[in-house]
Amino acid sequence: MAGPLPADAEPGGEPGAAGARGPARDGASNGRRPPPLAGATLVLGTFALSLATFMNVLDTSIANVSIPAMSGDLGVSLSQGTWVITSFGVANAISVPLAGWLTVRFGQVRLFIASVLLFVFASWLCGLAPSIEWLIAFRVLQGAVAGPMVPLSQALLLSSYPAHRSGTALAMWSMTTLIAPVAGPLLGGWITDNIAWPWIFYINIPVGLFAVGLTWLIYRDRDTPRRKLPVDGVGLALLVLWVGALQIMLDKGKELDWFASGTIVWLGVVALVALALFLVWELTEEHPVVDLSLFRGRNFSAGVVSLALAYALFFGNVVILPLWLQQYLGYTATWAGMALAPVGLLAAVFTPIVGRNLGRWDARALATISFVIFALVLWMRSLFDTQADYFSIVIPTIVQGIAVAFFFVPLMAIVLSGIGPERIAAASGLSNFFRILAGSFGTSVATTLWDHRASMHHAHLVESVSLGRGATTQALTRLEAAGLSPGQALAAIEQMIDQQAYTLSANDLFYGSALLFVVLAGFIWLARPLPAHR
Prior knowledge:
Blueprint: H1 39-58, H2 67-74, H3 78-81, H4 83-95, H5 99-106, H6 108-128, H7 132-146, H8 149-160, H9 166-194, H10 199-202, H11 204-219, H12 233-253, H13 262-284, H14 298-328, H15 333-340, H16 343-356, H17 363-381, H18 390-405, H19 408-416, H20 424-463, H21 470-481, H22 486-523
Helix pairs in contact: 1-8, 1-9, 1-11, 4-7, 4-12, 4-20, 5-6, 5-20, 6-7, 6-8, 6-11, 8-9, 8-20, 9-15, 9-16, 9-19, 12-13, 12-20, 14-15, 14-19, 14-20, 14-22, 16-18, 17-18, 17-19, 17-22, 20-22, 21-22
């Protein structure tokens, strides 16, 4: 079977696309793959890397269903509580593209081990956080040190398999990367309901230490040589500035009435100017902190854009659904998690099949299948109402497992097609930067739109409810007959209006996301076919 990631291909997917510049080009591997692993060593190596990746990605979503409990315990609003999610995502996104430079400086294995150990330490601090400010600070630390873990696990895994089995390697990696965000709410919900929310962080300690021990045992003699490179301090500072300003603008916009606030305007200006300066600097710097020359490759560009936008839609809806279930349908954190967990059933079945056949199937067609099924699932969710039962909610989740299976493997194959082995860490880091950043932005945009559309629907519904209307009078009479005072009856009607407004708003988001997935199904065909299909 033809492999989707030929080791001797030109970087960037096109001849001369990337040139010889950038931190990853100076990598110590010099384009040579270490010999692949075999037998039990390969199995254990795959398990160790997947376990560390699962732990990392799990933390992007494990707090989703715990936000109400955290917010209540720490005395803050739900909108402030969502910073626990976005702070991790932004810090993680900023540090991910540094993987290429850090790999050259410290070596793949050493950097991976250090990243996992620091992640364990930061998780322990998150569990001990006495206030929302400290929790957000520790989540920033946790996200920052976690950055290199995902691209390095991918690079180490690809080096563990023969080139012709790279599709299988990507399948193993993608199963953990896609199932973890869905398993997170289930595990987080159970821990929150039955133990306490700090334990969603404490569980990383034994898992991380076990992954470190097993990884070091297998990979300690497979590290890449190290080389000192200049630190692109200006590029790093501009990266932090524009990403941080943009995320704060998205998080605080709703609270400060968006561009009616001078603070939001200034944040927008800072983000825009810093982004422009960042692009100019990185494209002209000899040793950039982010190797933007990778975007000269058509497949890398098309793949990264598709991956980022699709993940933003996917993750934004993963955040909204459990919040809606808990706040307006009366679900506990555990049951909200159980409503999302079944996505792993079909994903676990189909992902290995996709990986084994990637060389004979067109990756663009596989990605299109994923996007179309995502669109179908979100359209089904757009039909939910306040009377939806558990099984009606779970059916789209189960179907979504097929979309998940066809999502990461073909898209990552497109992104990494033609990238030389010495640039895999940099390419993976940059693509994951945009994926994680898009997920964080998607969370902020989704929650903001959810509230905005709910306010609009609330206003329209209130217009239909007045004390002079017969239906309103009948409803008040029934509620008062049930033992409620007139004030309590009015409050109950207001609660029902809120429930309907937020349900209609969620439907709007699901429907809009479905339409965007249909657009992505066509956009991915801008990529070139992989070598096996030329």
